[in-house]
Amino acid sequence: MIELQNLVAGYDRQPVTQALNGIIERGSMTAIIGANGCGKSTLLKTLAGFIPPVSGKFRWREKRPTIGWLAQRHSLEAQFPLTVHDVVSMGCWPKISLLAAYRRETRLRIAEALERVGLESLANSTIDELSGGQFQRMLFARVLVQNAPLVMLDEPFTGVDETTCNVLMELMLDMYLNGQTVLAVLHDSERVSRHFPQTLRLDTATPHWGTERVRVA
Ligand SMILES: Nc1ncnc2c1ncn2[C@@H]1O[C@H](COP(=O)(O)OP(=O)(O)OP(=O)(O)O)[C@@H](O)[C@H]1O
Any idea which UniProt keywords this protein has (predicted)? Predict the structure, then answer.
């Protein structure tokens, strides 16, 4: 799906990562791992198109797909007066108009996603009322509704308890089994080794594609 060719990610022409080469296959599930500050989020933002590469390039093997994006929690505005339902329904907007977002089938899709993340009873709560874990569940529901071919998640488990982590991990596995390509920045090496078929480690002398299934960092 994405081919990295000597791709260096960074800011304002200052490199953060080393040159990266490799392929993220369609339908794969990859964890980007490594120590704080090694450039995991920077790489994800580059592949999502938010910042340009410092050098090198990446290439979509087919047309660039719609990307389901789950940002790092601290980069989100929680005070905006929106309900949980409003936020989840945003997952429909790229495909259909705002008015169509309230068609029956769409409403059912939103309701189903809220149920899958366990937030059906909070659909009409405003987002400033949510706990950290509930907020993250809501963002997952939006990604579920979007059903994008490629899903990028930046530290999806930050600040959430073990039960919520397990629920969210199951949802990520469901996306993968559903044929969506999943690319996630993660810190939890135990979860990575248990669930992720592929890893890209950025904090070694040379970036390393592999699997953590045997070796737990
Ligand atoms: N907007 C920015 N402008 C300039 N430099 C930045 C910006 N955002 C991050 N950096 C720097 O880029 C480097 C890599 O940051 P990045 O967030 O990609 O690391 P990370 O591997 O995701 O770290 P963590 O595990 O702590 O989240 C850090 O040195 C950081 O200070």
Answer: ATP-binding, Nucleotide-binding, Transport
